[in-house]
Write a structure and sequence with these properties.
By secondary structure, the chain is mainly beta. It has a single domain, classed as Rubrerythrin, domain 2, CATH 2.20.28. The protein is 0% helix and 42% strand. The protein contains no helices and four strands. The radius of gyration is 12 Å and the shape is elongated.
Length: 59
């Protein structure tokens, strides 16, 4: 994987806080997005919480 496009996504957990801190690594090009000051955010499946949770880009 290209290291310049690699970002770390950290889970915020579900409503009860279960699964907080689970990590995904993915490729994302920050240079192409419309507002470069915003962090990448997406919903992915959290295997600890066993449901889809919000993942936010971490530096």
């Amino acid at each position: 994987m290209s290291q310049d496009l690699l970002v770390k996504l950290v889970s915020a957990g579900n409503a009860k806080g279960v699964g907080k801190g689970h990590v995904y690594y993915t490729r994302f090009n920050n240079k192409v997005k419309k507002d470069p000051s915003k962090k990448y955010e997406t919903k992915k499946f959290n295997p600890i919480a066993k449901e889809h949770t919000v993942y936010k880009q971490k530096k």
